[in-house]
Amino acid sequence: MTSAKTKKEKIFHPQSRKAGQLVRASLRKDKLRSLVSKRGLKHHSLADGYRFYHQCVPDEGVLALEELHSIVRDTWLTRFGVELEAEHATRRKGRPKSTSQIKLEELKLRESEEYRTGLEVVDLTHGPTVELFKKWDQKEIAYVEQLRFIRISSTDPSVAVVSRPGKHPSLLVETDVQMRDIS
């Protein structure tokens, strides 16, 4: 039989240099873990929005700007209406709002304010972008980030500003052709 040597764990004085190094390393790891967690939550919320717009993609052609506004106004901004009504109905008179109701109301208010000032959405009015968006597997956010995005606003529904022209190779080729046509 071979006996495995067990190494004793060293105990450091609390004010020693080594203890300080271990504390800093531990804090650094905790900070990185929290950043990964926050990034995951952000990606999850982005993916939910992109999935919603992916379901709105027409089978043939593209959406008109007015149709895109009606989807945002009538469907996207009102998607929590049923949950808010249920929360309101379950609350007894004179009782404070539940935490989930407060969060839903804040989210709804934030999104409506964002739509009023300018909401950035995938450009479903642009043919090549729509064709690329149809090919999305609904998992990889980086793919959608390469597409063309426009900023729409409830204050001026007839205007859409290209906020991100798109970095997908097929969109870059199209942009180069348009630039040559202008010259």
Automatic annotation (TrEMBL):
Q: Which Gene Ontology terms of cellular component type are present? A: nucleus
Record InterPro entries: Tma16, Tma16_sf
Q: What is this protein called?
A: Translation machinery-associated protein 16
Belongs to which family? Answer: Belongs to the TMA16 family.
Give the matching Pfam families.
Answer: Tma16
Superkingdom in the source lineage: Eukaryota
